[in-house]
Structure formats: C-alpha cells, structure tokens
Amino acid sequence: MFKKVLTLALLCSISSLPVFCEISQKDMAAAYSYYEQAERYSKNNQYSSAINELKKGLRLNPYDNNIRIGLINNHLLRATYYNNKSHEYIKAMNDLRSALFYLKYYGPKLNDASALKAIQDNENNLNYLYKQTQIATNLKNRYQIAKNLRKEGEFAASAYEFLQSASENSITQDCYSQTGELLTILGNHQLAADYYKKAIAINPNNPSTHLKLAKAYDALNEANLANTEYNYTLNKAENDKALMLELESIWVKKIGDNPNDAEAHTNLGAVYQKLGDYPKALQEYSKAKSLNPKNLTTRFNIGTLYQIQKEYNLAINAYDEVLQFNPNDESARFYKAQCFSELKQFDKAANEYKKLLEINPNNTEAKNLMLEAMRQVASPEEMLDQYETAANFGAIDANMVYNYAYELHKAGKLDEAITNYQKAISLDPKNPNSYINLAQTYKQKNNFDMALTVITEGLAQIPLNEDLKTYAAQLKSETAALQSNNASNLYKEGRFNEAIEKYLAIEPKTADIYINIGACYQSMNEDKKATDYYKLAMAKEPNNPEIAYYLGQAYTNLEDWTNARNYLAKARTLKPNDENIKELYNYVIDQQDQNALERALDLYTKGDFTNALAVLNNIISQNKNNAFAYYYRGLIYDAQKKYQLASIEYQKTVSISDAIPEAYYSLALDYDYLNRYKEAYFNYQKYLSLTVEENDYTKYAKTRINELKKYAN
What is the pLDDT of residues 644-669, one digit of tens each? Predict the structure, then answer.
C-alpha cells in the first residue's frame, strides 16, 4: 500500500503570456467564459469538469496564463484526490504528468519561485509513484508509456512522457514529432511548429514532418512559411500516395472555403500533376490562370505539365508566355531549351542555353547542355572551337573540361586529350569517367603502365565505384595477357631467364603464371626452384590435377620419391583416368618400394631383423600388393625359426604373383618343418614347374617329391 500523502504545490495567478498570433475578441471572451465556469467547478471540488472547461478555454486562447495555471492546479488537485482518497495511483500519475507538461513545456517557462517549487515537488511525487508502482523508468519504457497514453486520449500526459524520452537518440526525432502532433490537438500551433522544427533539424528529409509543420504555419496564418513547407512536401512525397492525397485534401478544402483562391487552384494542380492525373492538373491550372492571369508560376507549371506529356510545342508556348513577362526567368529558359532538344532542334536548344548563360554565366549545367546540343549539329573541329569560346560565359567547370577532352580524344588528338582529362580530374577528382577515358588514351599510346597508374589513382579517390573496378580488372587482364604472351614467346625461343623475368613482372599473378615460371625452371633442370613455383600455383588452385602432376614430375626428377608419390596420388584422385598420371605414379611407387626393399634386404643380411621388418611393414602399409615385401618378411621369420608366420607371408606372396618361384620353395620347406607334408609336396611341385634351370634347390625339391609322394593323395 502507498503510505505517502501527496502535498499540493499550487500556483498563484500571474499576468498573461505574450501573444504570438492574433486571438479574436470573440475567442478571448469565450475562453474567459470557460475559465469562469472552471473556477466554479473547482470550488465545488469538481476537478474533472474544471479541467474539461479549462482545456476548451486554452484551445481558444493558448496564451492566457490564468487558464494555463488553473489547468495546472486542477490537475494537481485531482492527482491529490486520486492518490490520497480513492487510491487510483495510475490516474494520479497521469494528472501529475499533465500538470508537469503545462508547467515545464507549454509555452514560455514559468520562472517564479512558486513555479520552480511546484516543478520540483511534483516531479518528486511522480518519481515516488513510479517507484511504488514498480513501473520501469528507462527511456524506452517511458516512450512506450507515452504512446499508450496518447491512445487513451491523455494528450498532455503523453506529451510529457515523450519529452522525458527524447534524450534517447534513436527516438528523439519521433518524440519531438509526436509532441508537435499532441500540441496541435491541444490547440497550441506555435509550440507545435517549434517541436516540428526540432524534429526536422534531426531528420530534414522526412516530408511527413514538413507537411505537419506546413499545417501548423497555416493555423498561425503564416502563409509564406506554410507554402515553403507544402512545396517541399510536394517535391519529396510524390511516391507517398497517402501524403499526396493529404495534400490534395488540404487544397480542396481551401478552394471549398474560397473558390476564387488562384494560388490554391495552382497548388492543387501541382498535386494532381505529381499524382499523374494530368487532365485534372490542367483544369486547375486553367482555373488559376483565369483568376489571376499575371501569376507566372501557373503559366510555368502549365509548361512543365505539357513537357511531362511530351507535348513539347505546347510547353514552349507556355514558357514563352512566362518569358514575355520576365525574359530573365532562368527556369523557363532552361526548360524551353530542353523541349527544343527533345524535338531534335539542337540549334534552337543551344541558342536558348546561350541566352540563359548571358543571364547567369556561372550556370554550369546550361554550359554543358549547350555544348551537348552543339555536339549534335557541329563537326568535331567546330566543337573544339565551341569549347574554347565557352569560357567566355564564365569559369570552365570540370564537366566542360571533361567534354572538351572527350572531343579531343575523338579527334585523335591524344596528347591534348590527356592534358585536359588531367585538368578535369584536378577540378573534380570524383568523376570516374575522367580516369577511365584518360586510361584509355594512355592505352591507345601503348602505355599500359600509365593506364594502370591512372585507374589506381581513381580507385584511391572513389574506391567503391563499380565502373572503375570493372575497368581496372579489364585493364589488368589485358596487361597481363600482353605480358604473358611476350613471356611465352621468350619461352618458346628457349630464353628461359628472360621469360621468367617477364612472368614475374605480371600482376596479379595467377596460377598459370606460377606454372609457367615453374616450367621455365624445369626446362633449365632446376627442379627444386620449379617445385617452389608449382606450390604457389597450387595455393591458388588447390584442386588442379595438372599442378599436382607437375609437382610429381619435378620431385621424380629430384628422386624425392615420397613427395613425388604424394602429389601424384593427389593428381590421381583429382583425375583418375589420366594415363600419364597413372604411369608416372606406378613408376614412382616401384622406385620407392625398390629402394626400400634394398634397404630391408641389407638389414636382413646384417641380421638386423627388427629394423628390416619395420621397413617392410611400411612398404606393405602403402602398397598391400608388393609381393617381394611379403617374401622378405617370410625370410626374416624363417631366420627366426617362426615357420608358421613365415608360411603365412609366403602364402600372401604367391597369392599376389608367381614371379617369385622361390616363395613356393620356401613355403614347401616350412610345411616340411610343420609336418604338413601334403602341402609341402604340392609346393615343391609348383616350384619345379616355375623353375627351368637346374640348381641345388631343384635337386632337393625333386628328392623330397619322391619322398613325399605317398602323401600326395
């Protein structure tokens, strides 16, 4: 339960505030009548009724300080009642918020001692209730509370909470905009305009806020300011159907209030033009023109309407009407010139641009368009003269210099074009076309290095420009192709070191470049260096079987069988049906195994059975079909008198190949030792069938066959 009793901090009446816009005597009298009625309600403790009367009065006269203070006091009295008597604490909080809004924000600050004390005391009261109701006071929660209060019709309380939330940057603009809307509802259009301007200062590009500000200025009878904002909204909101329809509604209402308002008809015509309803637009412009024939804006808008519809001759007539009254109207002259260009009457278009430049020599767009029009009818030589004389209209801008360079470029005057492209870049370093065309000019002079330098400088200035990126890639590709072709020719001529030097100069280096460098070194029998470059190629294309094959070749030449085998195994995996890879892989395996077998045999001969077995086991782990490895392992087991193990190795040997007849002989001997005479008999026979030359082993085999014949069956 709440134990704290709210204490009142009421204000005394003070003089009225300064008036910012004219209030009619009728409204002032009505506002005072509401104030008197509120006083009667308040004396009878009918605070809600008093508040309603005071709100009505404040809407009519938002600058009456007595009404404002009466409203503050009645909110405080009702807050005290809700808290101390009926214990409706949320309602008490809303009244405190409303009172604080009128105290702190509604109009000029109240700086007397009683007002400052009231603010401090009632903010303490509100904070106490926040704590007791356990409602979060973080800014985003208060922002949500403000939106909810607005939905509930608690406009002053809502505005207070929006302004408490406004220090949160992500919602500041919306807080100010919403406060402006609430002040509009409460009838204080001057203060509403101030908050709309604050919102616009944060986000100047929101046409919706500009429209709200326009309506606030309208309510304040600030016609010029309102029209500025309406025009901004019209120009920026043409893709926002809801805003355009709202503008239409505003001007329709104004015409309803005053059918002879020529400016309102012109503005409504502009709205219809933006909406694409050209017949209605022309209807409104025509009405405005009949009401005020001297309004040049209406005539100008008629011209733009015809121009949009590609009725260029009618547009020209409308612009001529404007120019008849004001020959120095730059916009009418400019759009008239555009119409002539659309009609392909480029000489007339150029003439209009020239007249415009006589009015405003620094209009660079007109200069460029004049030259563009001239380009359609003049020869390249005449255009060069035009560019040289165009400077008479004022300082030459970057675009003009660029176009002049372009004409020189077209005329084949490359050195002069280079000079002017460079000047255009110095005037405007952000134009990508200047860099691209300058690079093309250098390329035409076969100076690829300078072309690349220019594009690199362009990317330093505008690193995200896609045209520059694309051209840089194209230029690098062309340069690399040219350099690679030169290097390839040197390679074919056997000038390997010169070829390597050319390949090393190419940027960026692709896998092919590294492969070609490796091939050069291999051709010079420098296989170790070749492997270094093949590995760089593989780093760029790790799944290229050709690179793995080249590495296998180089390591084979170096007799590095382990690396050769590894790279060739990878090549086989990537390209399993390639006969060249298979052939070299099998050769490397044979060489590797042969070396290992020789080492194992040497260890066996020396009686180092442990290390001999280790070598043989390694061979078998990598090649399970190496018959000799099993045979030598059998010999080691025999030497260790492990006849059973030896017989298993000999069986594996003969299961793989008959190329080792001695394996049958050794297997027969082991079966003899193991008393497996039948198997011994047949293996002696197999040995003799595979052995042509007579030797001591064949003699012994024949003897044992005769002795074991009885076991044959």
Answer: 999 999 999 999 988 899 999 999 99
In the block, tokens 């390249």 appear at: 380
Handedness of CA 497, 498, 503, 506 (dihedral sign): positive
The DSSP element (H or E) to which 148 belongs, if any, is helix 139-151
C-alpha–C-alpha distance, residues 413 and 408, integer Å: 5
Helix and strand numbers, DSSP H then E, in the chain: 37, 0
Of 600, 616, 563, the closest CA to residue 585 belongs to: 563
Residue where the block lists tokens 């409203």: 71
Q: Give the count of alpha carbons within 13 A of 548, CB side only.
A: 23
pTM tops 0.70: no
Q: Please answer whether residues 307 and 339 qualify as being in contact, where contact means their C-beta atoms are separated by less than 8 angstroms.
A: yes
Burial environment of residue 580 by CB neighbours within 10 A (0 to 12, 13 to 18, 19 or more): exposed
pLDDT confidence of residue 392: 52
In tens, the pLDDT along 378-422 reads 766 666 666 666 655 554 667 777 877 887 888 888 888 888 888
Higher pLDDT, 379 or 97: 97
Q: What is the DSSP letter of 171?
A: G
Determine phi and psi for 19, rounding to 5 degrees. Answer: -95, 125
Amino acid in position 98? S
> Kindly report the CA angle at 643 between 638 and 670, in degrees rounded to 5?
90
Q: Whole-angstrom Cα distance, residue 339 to residue 310?
A: 8
pLDDT beyond 50 at 1: no
Identify the CA nearest to 703 among candidates 674, 681, 679, 678: 681
What are the DSSP calls for 532-595, one per residue? Answer: HHHHHHHHH-TT-HHHHHHHHHHHHHTT-HHHHHHHHHHHHHHSTT-HHHHHHHHHHHHHHHHH
Are 64 and 38 in contact by the 8 Å Cβ rule? The answer is no
pLDDT of residue 409: 86
For residue 255 the two structure tokens come to 């015409």
pLDDT per position as a tens digit, 564-591? 888 888 888 889 899 988 888 888 877 7
Helix (H, G, I), strand (E, B) or coil at 311: coil
Round to whole Å and give the CA distance between 266 and 283: 10
